[in-house]
């Protein structure tokens, strides 16, 4: 059995480029930044950022270009795809992309999701970061 699945949660790191194919199908591309935080052997906090090329097609592309922008938090579900082409100087070029099959928008930058009761209150929450080595108390899990 073969399996090609990618799930990424990060922030959009570039402007969304919206185009149409010659057949009129919508396609958008952007870069997504993800990070990883851990402690090294000496206990020092380390952080590493990765940038991913994302491609969305059809209605997904149209929705992303309308509702997302640079800095938006987004969850992308898709698959890896490698492709190659020859540039203007004749050199063979390669790229690895994530072809998005689904995406979910996160809260707007600096804004947490609100219930109807909280709509008049300003809430400054973001997605919590769990670092490698952090202990999780089972009593802190809300379900």
What's the structural blueprint in terms of helices and strands?
Blueprint: E1 6-12, E2 17-20, E3 26-39, E4 45-57, H1 58-67, E5 73-86, E6 92-105
Parallel strand pairs: 4-6
Antiparallel strand pairs: 1-3, 1-5, 2-3, 3-4, 5-6
Overview of the molecule:
The protein is mostly beta strands. A 5-stranded mixed barrel has the order 1-3-4-6-5. It is globular. The chain has one helix at residues 58-67, and strands spanning 6-12, 17-20, 26-39, 45-57, 73-86, 92-105. It has a single domain (6-108), classed as Nucleic acid-binding proteins (OB fold (Dihydrolipoamide Acetyltransferase, E2P)), CATH 2.40.50.140. The protein starts with 5 loop residues before the first strand and ends in a 38-residue tail after the last strand. It has 1 helix and 6 strands.
In short:
The protein is mainly beta and 143 residues long.
Helix content range of the residues, please? under 10%
- As laid out across the biggest beta sheet, the strand order is 1-3-4-6-5
CATH hierarchy, class: Mainly Beta
Overall shape: it is: globular
Termini separation comes to 34 Å
According to CATH, the homologous superfamily is: Nucleic acid-binding proteins
- CA-based gyration radius: 19 Å
The beta-strand count equals 6
């Amino acid at each position: 059995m073969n399996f090609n699945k990618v799930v990424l949660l990060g922030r959009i790191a570039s402007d969304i480029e919206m185009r149409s194919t010659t057949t009129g199908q919508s396609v958008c591309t952007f870069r997504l930044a993800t990070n990883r935080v851990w402690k090294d052997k000496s206990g020092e906090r380390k952080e590493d950022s990765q940038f991913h090329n994302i491609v969305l097609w059809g209605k997904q592309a149209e929705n992303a270009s309308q509702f997302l922008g640079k800095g938006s938090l987004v969850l992308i579900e898709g698959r890896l795809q490698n492709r190659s082409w020859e540039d203007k100087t004749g050199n063979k070029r390669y790229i690895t992309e994530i072809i998005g099959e689904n995406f979910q928008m996160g809260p707007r930058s600096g804004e947490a999701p609100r219930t109807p009761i909280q709509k008049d209150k300003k809430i400054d929450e973001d997605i919590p970061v769990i670092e490698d080595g952090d202990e999780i108390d089972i009593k802190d899990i809300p379900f």
